[in-house]
């Protein structure tokens, strides 16, 4: 009889031991895969060319002065500043302060370069009239509307971004004020630890706009700005986080879970965090996505070619007047384009520090008013029970007023 075929060994079964998260919650961790590897370090740049450094000395100086002016804190307008803003002397005041304007300082390199080029063209045409550089003005008449449309679209797109950033920031401040007011008015337990937890939660809420401000502006000292709002341990946790506004949102969310609020009230307060998350997304998109670069480059190239050929076009009619004409044209058109570039990044143009301080001061004032009003209403209720109040509910004599106070 033939031997039976050898039996195949049964596959080994791997027994996976599943540990439920509820058994040991401290060991449960979420794993998030990295989508993009870290960028490789850039190679060191070669030594700069001395001639290039000399040519870029004036633009570098103008850019440095302009950046220092952008970093200055902007105040909120008061009634006196509004009266000065609409004063009939504003035109003279703006003219006298032209040399301190960051917009005008940014125009020094291009305007001076095109004016010098116009002077060179005028000198050449004067010395060699037989070979003068001239051309018809018809191309300028045909392309002037196109340049105007480019500049109008550039400024309108930049102002739309400015307005969007302002509205996003206002929603963040309104959400922080509303959430802080709910925490102050919806507190239940009056124990010492509960009051301390509510105070810490209020500080987290007030710290979020400050952290977001430091996140969307450059050269911000977040440690200095948050020093009085967060404890040293909390501040170290926030500073060690790569995304500090979201870290503070986590502080707020977990504090809401730990405090003794009613469930529906806690749900309402947690829903207010959507204002913060939406503000982060909108602000990061505005910072990370500029006006389409192709449009910005087209506007810049159009302006450069326009003013390089302007002395040649105007020579037959204006002669040496092409030099001041080029200066006026370059100063006007490049100024419009420069304003569009400046307001394209809206947050350095807004008074973010002053608004954060205003929110902080208003919350402190609300807390003091809340205590005063509560004491007043408690005294009013006691006096009503004793029958000492008139129909309107308030004391009618100075003696009763003193007793109630």
From TrEMBL:
GO biological process: regulation of photosynthesis, light reaction
UniProt GO molecular function: voltage-gated chloride channel activity
Gene Ontology CC terms, in alphabetical order: membrane
Segments of skewed composition (Basic residues): 10-28
Entry membrane topology: Multi-pass membrane protein
Cell compartments where the protein resides: Membrane
Region (Disordered) residue spans: 1-28, 381-405
Keyword terms: Ion transport, Membrane, Transmembrane, Transmembrane helix, Transport
Highest taxon listed in the record's lineage: Eukaryota
UniProt entry tagged with the keyword Transport: yes
Pfam families: Bestrophin_2 (PF25539)
PANTHER family recorded: UPF0187 PROTEIN YNEE (PTHR33281), VOLTAGE-DEPENDENT CHLORIDE CHANNEL 1, CHLOROPLASTIC (PTHR33281:SF1)
Protein's recorded name: Uncharacterized protein
Organism encoding this protein: Lolium multiflorum (Italian ryegrass)
